[in-house]
Amino acid sequence: MPCSCCAPSGINDLDGTFDAASAAKEAKRFLKRGAVRRTLRLIRPLLALPTPLDSVLDIGCGAGAAHQELLRRGAAKLAVGVDASAGYITAAAQNATVLGLRERTLYHQLDFALHAAQFEPAAAVIMDRVICCYPDLGRLLGAAAERSTCFLALSFPRNNWWVRLIGTAINGFSAFGRSRYRFFIHPEPEVLRVVRAAGLLPVESSTLGAWHLVIFARAAAPAAVPPLQSS
Ligand SMILES: C[S@@+](CC[C@H](N)C(=O)[O-])C[C@H]1O[C@@H](n2cnc3c(N)ncnc32)[C@H](O)[C@@H]1O
Predict the structure, then answer these.
(1) pTM above 0.90, yes or no
(2) What pLDDT does 35 receive?
(3) Is 53 within the bounds of a domain?
(4) Is the CB of 18 under 6 A from ligand 1?
(5) Would residue 35 count as lying in a domain?
């Protein structure tokens, strides 16, 4: 019997869970209406930088909204999108073509935690709703934070009673449907510890619905990001 990382759809059944049908739906929505409010709020400090980021690494990029919004608004020059789901990577690449961004993007379908060493550092790393899909926080988030030379934009679920209830419901439905996928609420102190260990500090923090949105920066990053705010 293969171990979970060698099973056909890998750790936490990401490829099976984030399938082509949901990818196509999200990609279509992005083309029609742009990035959702959470994603826009998350990348807002990057959109406000005085000069474009040389490169962006969007890990768990889904249909590509975060990095494609940065590219099309002139806030980033190049972007690399990584996702464990083949359906999402295909959808992101197709949207990049439709938006005329294909020559400024590269896409990889793989588990970033297992293949991080092959990626060049980027000025900004983005992880929008990704660590909640992965059991090994230290391995995924630690590797991601290490690849940021300036910023890390991270959204992750809040750990309160109603988000835990949603998580329990998601996991109940998954188990009932015989899926191996599970939703994880990693404790905020642990998230901060992993990122700090990679040399990044939180500079802006807010919440939106079920999500914490945090921008981290290296000490040497351009001083264009507003000081830490909490809400
Ligand atoms: C909830 S979706 C979010 C997609 C997108 N960032 C967004 O906010 O619309 C989470 C995505 O992260 C991807 N993902 C989770 N862990 C990953 C890993 N270790 N390596 C690559 N992709 C991963 C999943 O395949 C999935 O497409």
Answers:
(1) yes
(2) 98
(3) yes
(4) yes
(5) yes
Using the atom order of ligand 1, give the atom closest to the CA of residue 18.
27
160 CA distance to ligand 1 centroid (A)?
22
Of 59, 82, 83, which is best to mutate to test ligand 1, by the most ligand atoms within 8 angstroms of its C-beta? 83
CATH number of the domain at 107, please: 3.40.50.150
Nearest CA to ligand 1 atom 11: 60
pLDDT digits (tens, 9 = 90+) for 120-172: 999 999 999 999 999 999 999 999 999 999 999 999 999 999 999 999 999 99
Q: How far apart are CA 137 and CA 116, in angstroms?
A: 14
**Average pLDDT over the chain, rounded to whole?**
93
pLDDT score, position 10: 79
Domain total of the chain: 1
Q: Is 199 left (phi over 0), alpha (psi -120 to 50) or beta?
A: left
Distance CA(115)–CA(112), nearest Å, equals 5
Q: How far is CA 7 from the centre of its chain?
A: 23
Ligand 1 pocket, residue 111 CB under 6 Å: yes
